[in-house]
Amino acid sequence: xxxxxxxxxxxxxxxxxxxxxxxxxxxxxxxxxxxxxxxxxxxxxxxxxxxxxxxxxxxxxxxxxxxxxxxxxxxxxxxxxxxxxxxxxxxxxxxxxxxxxxxxxxxxxxxxxxxxxxxxxxxxxxxxxxxxxxxxxxxxxxxxxxxxxxxxxxxxxxxxxxxxxxxxxxxxxxxxxxxxxxxxxxxxxxxxxxxxxxxxxxxxxxxxxxxxxxxxxxxxxxxxxxxxxxxxxxxxxxxxxxxxxxxxxxxxxxxxxxxxxxxxxxxxxxxxxxxxxxxxxxxxxxxxxxxxxxxxxxxxxxxxxxxxxxxxxxxxxxxxxxxxxxxxxxxxxxxxxxxxxxxxxxxxxxxxxxxxxxxx
Length: 360
What we know:
The protein is α/β, with parallel strands linked by helices. The protein has helices at 29-38, 56-64, 76-84, 97-105, 164-167, 183-191, 201-214, 226-232, 242-249, 280-290, 293-303, 318-321, 330-333, 344-359, and strands at residues 42-48, 67-73, 92-93, 109-110, 140-152, 176-179, 218-222, 237-241, 255-258, 265-271, 273-274, 337-338. The chain has 14 helices and twelve strands. The longest helix is centred in the C-terminal third of the chain and has 16 residues, at 344-359.
């Protein structure tokens, strides 16, 4: 699936369905109007693909008078690389937990002004003081979830339970896709019985060797589009994010999602403001708007990811709240782990290993 030119005046709308939500915009407008008076009425957002509601950006502009320029990235590596040498003009970005740590360590983020984001109070206590973002210093958690296997049920006589049901399944040779970034290396570490957060150079190298060994059976390394390949029938199983598979499963009930028994990655994406943001006040306004319970609940309902916003849960259907693919059981979560920032030397080992895999 080709990416559209950027920057985007509106979000990418494939697989979107109108929600018909009733959002009270009047209560949000005053904050945004103040921001508009202080800055050019624009905010530049850099987000993952298929990760915002159909109407969210239009509703924000209607409420605040602030226009949104919207651009997409396909991997955490791409996001970090884009800002590593300086901010090219983004106001709000959506890095995962370990990238927040990495960017904070490199002095690439602005500590938010909590008085400009009163809706931070809506964040559930479990997410309000994470080690990578103590006291919500760097902004707000957006959504959380897992990485796992999206698969076509009719192609599997029995439900896949292991990473190797994809990577070493003879019937799936040429019929599976992996992600193109270092998160695929983390999958390989779990498949080999290691921690996906290891600092051991030998284990990191072994994961790269494993991916090179199985590479002939890989259909493609997809830039966060494995769900589209699955929906189109180009692959029968893929490494993907929980919510992305929920989106396509809503269109095809033969598609399902599972976290392998070896465990997987638990992650939390965040809304943060990069250093050098040209519209920092508007950035605060955007984050505050997204955290409005009705807004955040509507986005969660549409994109199929788990919300860290306690107040938004009332606006998420019960069926979604009880869906174990979105909100896994404690037993399943116990087999998952976060990736953390391990210092530039170790992060470089991961990047070099994945580069070696892609070049092999």
